[in-house]
Automatic annotation (TrEMBL):
EC number: 6.3.1.2
Organism: Actinomadura livida
GO process terms (BP): glutamine biosynthetic process
PROSITE patterns xrefs: GS_CATALYTIC (PS51987)
Taxonomy, superkingdom: Bacteria
UniProt entry tagged with the keyword Ligase: yes
Record's protein name: Glutamine synthetase
Length: 475
């Protein structure tokens, strides 16, 4: 089967030949979907506020959409979480258009939405060039940059969500069982069975599902894949969970803070760096002479991420509500430190069980949440890791305890500084980071700052209860 051509080389445009190939592939896929009783395809993208937006086409229009795209205003990248618009230097007004082109390699029927298929979209301008605010294209470019240096990355998101009964604005936990308790599985066994079945039928490989700590909270982990696939899967998993929840008369929220006095929902990212070697790739996070048996490149990649965590929070913890979640001693990773299997460190090194480490060892970035655009998160993490590789960075000494329990002078000596405690602090760190700006590009970096500052102004002076209420059902 012909692959969707790479539209991500800077300056590359869609020419007539490429459009013809796209259209032919779209026609073939439309016939296949019609045979499965699919009537429409949702083309999705994720905006800078982390909200999945869509335009849909009847299946018989898929050929045209593949070749010529679907028109959309660029203004959505300047939307705040309440759908108000904050004008910036690159987007924010009523003028302009771009085109959504479905990535047909990721086109799948949605088991949770009978009659519907899903395709994440690449975004182009009207001349056929990649749109500068297309974060899917950005992620592919940065993945390719690592590949040019001989590296690949495997990635996956852990998805946490909380389930509520009733259709009101308040949150009413759908289960009463204890944290991590089997009772919570029993209470919603049919619902969870349908979540797992729908994910499997949609092509998602689930590794595990379990009750979590907060009221009504669950977590699902999926198999690692290439970064673009991992971000696509994160979107697909969330929309599948949302649809199954609604079919059961429930409401799912992925917000970083569901109730002001409880822990929130994270969206931890797992990453491992691999080098091609002979017949099989080698995991740089295992089998080396560095900390936790990392190789030197693996350590440098990890150190690059750790070094830039304060700035990365403007992308990975992008809401005012994120900082109600990101507090010490809540397993949220509120300190910029690392440690083997330390769930209070912002960067946890997952060593894996003895005998499985060559394939299982990976990094878990714990300070991130689901208000983030998953494409932008992974792009920024790859940029930070790439800089670490190029600079030969090294990790400081590991932290083996909850860093909040250490005397302040010892934390400072170990470099285990408190991460930004507000979105404003994170934005300031991001705006001072030239490496991330260069990797993301001016259009993305400026729009991130504009949207973040817009949300800060929107919720200025709000109480934790008001912030939680404003964000609870937006993600």
């Amino acid at each position: 089967m012909e692959q969707f051509p790479e539209p991500l080389v800077p300056g590359q445009a869609l020419d007539a030949r490429a459009r013809a190939r796209f259209g032919a592939r779209g026609s073939s896929e439309a016939r296949r979907l019609a045979g499965l009783d699919i009537v429409a395809v949702a083309l999705t993208w994720v905006d800078i506020s982390g909200i999945t937006r869509t335009k849909t086409v009847p299946v018989e229009r898929l050929e045209h959409a593949a070749a010529w795209g679907v028109g959309m205003s660029p203004v959505f990248d300047a939307y705040l979480l309440d759908d108000s618009i904050v004008p910036g230097p690159h987007v924010g007004g009523p003028v302009g258009d771009l085109r959504l082109h479905p990535d047909l390699d990721r086109l799948v029927p949605m088991a949770a939405l009978p009659g519907w298929a899903h395709a994440p979209a690449f975004r182009y301008d009207q001349e056929g060039a990649a749109h500068p605010l297309d974060t899917r294209a950005l992620l592919r470019r940065l993945t390719d940059r690592l590949a040019d240096d001989g590296w690949t990355v495997k990635a996956a998101f852990e998805i946490e969500w909380a389930v509520s009964r009733g259709g009101g604005e308040e949150f009413s936990p759908a289960v009463r069982g204890p944290a991590y308790g089997m009772t919570r599985i029993t209470e919603l066994a049919g619902y969870l069975r349908n979540v797992l079945t729908a994910l499997k039928e949609t092509g998602v490989t689930v590794m595990q599902l379990h009750p979590e700590y907060a009221a009504g909270q669950y977590e699902v982990s999926v198999a690692a894949e290439d970064p673009l696939g991992a971000a696509d899967t994160a979107v697909l998993v969330r929309e599948t969970i949302r649809a199954v929840s609604m079919a059961h008369g429930l409401a799912a929220t992925f917000s970083p803070k569901v109730e002001p006095d409880s822990v929130g929902n994270g969206a931890h990212v797992h990453l491992s760096l691999w080098r091609s070697s002979g017949d099989a790739p080698v995991n740089a996070m295992a089998g080396g002479d560095g900390p936790c048996e990392m190789s030197s490149p693996g350590e440098a990649f990890a150190a690059g991420i750790l070094h830039r965590l304060p700035a990365l929070l403007a992308i990975g913890a992008p809401s005012v509500a994120s900082y109600l979640r990101l507090v010490p001693s809540h397993w949220a990773g509120a300190f910029a430190c690392w440690g083997p299997e330390n769930r209070e460190a912002a960067l946890r090194v997952v060593t894996g069980a003895e005998g499985e480490r060559p394939t299982a060892a990976n990094l878990e970035v714990k300070c991130l949440d689901a208000a983030a655009n998953p494409y932008l998160v992974l792009a920024a993490l790859l940029a930070a890791g790439h800089e670490g590789l190029g600079g030969g960075r090294r990790l400081p000494d590991p932290v083996h305890v909850d860093p909040a329990t250490l005397p302040e002078e010892e934390r400072v000596a170990r470099g285990a500084v408190r991460l930004p405690a507000s979105l404003g602090e994170a934005v300031a760190a991001f705006e001072a980071d030239d490496v991330l700006r260069a990797a993301l590009g001016d259009a993305v970096a400026d729009t991130v700052s504009t949207v973040r500052r817009g949300e800060i102004e929107l919720l200025d002076g709000a109480t934790p209860e008001e912030i939680t209420a404003a964000t609870r059902w937006r993600h």
